[in-house]
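Order emerges. One example.
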Amino acid sequence: MGRLFECVGGVLTVSEAQIDAVTAVSGSGPAYFFLFVEALVDAAVAIGLSRPVATDLAVQTMAGAAA
C-alpha cells in the first residue's frame, strides 16, 4: 500500500504508539502553519503594505525557508 501513497507524497512507517504524535505534527501542523502565515500577512498590512504584496512576501518567505 505504501507504493500507492508514494504517488501523492512521502510515506513514513511508524509504530502504532507514535500515531498520536504523527497526527499532532502532520495532521494539525498545517493549521498552525497557515495561522502563522495569515498573522504575518496581517502584520505586514498593519504596517502599510497592501494585502497582495504582503501575501506574496509571506508566501515567498515560507517557500524559501522550506527550500
